[in-house]
Amino acid sequence: MGVFDGWKVTSPYGSRSDPFTGSRVFHTGIDLVKYHRYPIPAFVGGVVLFAGDGGPGTGFGGYGNVVALRDEKGYVHCYCHLDSVVVQKGQKLSTGDIVGYQGTTGRSTGSHLHYEVRSKDAPSYGYGLHVNPGEYLESLENEEDDEMLKERVTELESQVAALKGECQTLLNTAEAHIQEINTLKAQLADQTTPDWFSAEFGADALKGVVDTPQGPNLFWRLAAVAFRLRKKG
Fold first, then answer.
1. Which of 49, 174, 219, 225 suits 112 as a labelling partner, its CA being 20 to 30 A distant?
2. Contact 111/10 with Cβ under 8 angstroms?
């Protein structure tokens, strides 16, 4: 029962021998021990429904001083046999807030905390509608873990979407540059040899020459100068 690590479990949830009569009865909660007057923390947050002596007809008969709070799912968490209570009805508590101090009030054989979880808050604060406290707290922890995982997944999906957007922008830029380069290549490839040059030097004289890195413009200037010099000479 990992949720109760650090506590001594003196009586688990389920069937047991009644400490007063010895007969088999169902224990509706779990008995936990630290030390007498240990400050008892709320295992979950919620709103205090009951705080005080659990007398007959309250749904807490025999439990002595009790704090009962309702969590966000509507379950009632009962902290029983407290030496004293430090919260009030209607008060909102967070996980870890102190509800009272470990004691032995009510029908008790020694100082301990009887912790009980009930699935409803009415009638009589859900008396008789108990569930396994350990399993219920574990289910809450699992839900919290699931929510954390969902938040992390959402965060990662957002980061991936942002990266995809950046990659698409880079890809579009690269494609634009490639198109520009292809256009320049086409322009270079479309440089036909003038008739006067072909007549003078032959139609194949420029193969492997015009497509130099300097491009055709500089070549044609030099070729024209050379041709004119040759004509004059």
1. 49
2. no
Tens of pLDDT along 41-83? 999 999 999 999 998 889 999 999 999 999 999 999 999 999 9
Cα separation, 43 vs 140, in Å, equals 11
Cα 229 from Cα 223, distance rounded (Å):
10
Identify the CA nearest to 107 among candidates 55, 32, 57, 49: 55
Q: With the C-alpha atoms ordered 158, 160, 164, 167, is the resulting torsion angle positive or negative? A: positive
In the chain, where the domains are located: 2-131, 133-189, 191-233
Note the pLDDT tens digit of each residue in 74-85. Answer: 999 999 999 999
* Cα dist from 140 to 46, 51, 59, 75, whole Å: 13, 24, 25, 11
CATH architecture group of domain 2-131: Distorted Sandwich (2.70)
- Here the tokens at position 141 are 């922890």
Three-state DSSP state, 48: strand
At 1 the three-state DSSP class reads coil
Q: What is the pTM of this model?
A: 0.65
